[in-house]
Amino acid sequence: MIDCFIAEDEQILRRGLTLTIDWNALGCRIIGEAENGAQALDLIQKLKPDLIITDIRMPVLDGLSLIEKTLEQYRPEFIIISGYNDFAYAKKAIRLGAADYLCKPIDEKELTAAVTEVCKKIAGKQAQALQNMPVKIIAGNKLLLAHFKEFVPQSAGRKNKYISNAIRFIQQNYGGNITMRDACKHLVISESYLTKLFKEYTGYSFIEYLTYWRMKKACELLNTEGIKIYAVAERVGYSDQRYFSVLFKKYTGLTPKQFREKQFSIE
């Protein structure tokens, strides 16, 4: 799912934004809200949402300043909302990289269209992140798992529901010995059709996404002390620890042991 954050000082409008559209249908979830810019900045730095929807005029820290300070940390997408049809604000917001600028009162169709377009852009970046695996060691010797981002395609319609359900099936059953055939039985579609759809909408095969998700979860488990490597392998669907280790190194550039040692050495 694509993580979204709403910064809006008007409680009624903030509540309305969460209820106006079906976020889940767009592959999104609201992970946080704030009533002023300073509170928003603090939460954004902790939660790292993919999409931030922010008002221009807010107490303590305005929306444009919030964007500037957030961009000093990382580069999410932004949608600006404002009660002022002010070209100067819009111009600066666009210069800062805002994806869209909506005027109050917020129209449901306009909001849906804006979020849909931004989500397509985010999904494209996430797909590119998958292509850029393995994970790299970056500044400060911290292991960044930015490439292990959850990817849900944003194309609308019935076909997308098949893909979303297939991905959900993987995410809920990756610890078992699952195959594409199992997913097809669950979705009640043919293997050839799912193969075509999966490649078309994600750019990857079913097994590539399954492996990616298992590696993502393995990284999370290896960050937990007390769990043996063989147990990590079993939890993410591999009964053969040696095979798991080979795959893990292919995806991260480190063996499970090296990954764990690196993680705990930098804490």
Describe this structure in words.
- About 9% of the residues have low confidence.
- β1, α1 and β2 form a beta-alpha-beta unit.
- By secondary structure, this protein is α/β, with parallel strands linked by helices.
- Strands 2-1-3-4-5 form a five-stranded parallel β-sheet, sandwiched between helices. A two-stranded antiparallel sheet has the order 6-7.
- The chain folds into two domains: 125 residues, Rossmann fold (3-Layer(aba) Sandwich), CATH 3.40.50; 125 residues, Arc Repressor Mutant, subunit A, CATH 1.10.10.
- 54% of the residues lie in helices and 12% in strands.
Indicate the proportion of strand residues.
5-15%
CATH class of the largest domain: Alpha Beta
| CATH architecture annotation of the largest domain | 3-Layer(aba) Sandwich
What's the domain count? 2
Gyration radius, in Å: 21 Å
Secondary structure elements and pairings:
Elements: E1 2-7, H1 11-20, E2 28-34, H2 37-47, E3 51-55, H3 63-71, E4 77-82, H4 87-95, E5 100-103, H5 108-131, E6 137-138, E7 142-143, H6 158-173, H7 180-187, H8 191-202, H9 206-222, H10 229-235, H11 241-252, H12 256-265
Parallel strand pairs: 1-2, 1-3, 3-4, 4-5
Antiparallel strand pairs: 6-7
Helix pairs in contact: 2-3, 6-7, 6-8
Organism: Treponema maltophilum ATCC 51939
Modified residues (4-aspartylphosphate): 55
Domain Response regulatory: 3-119
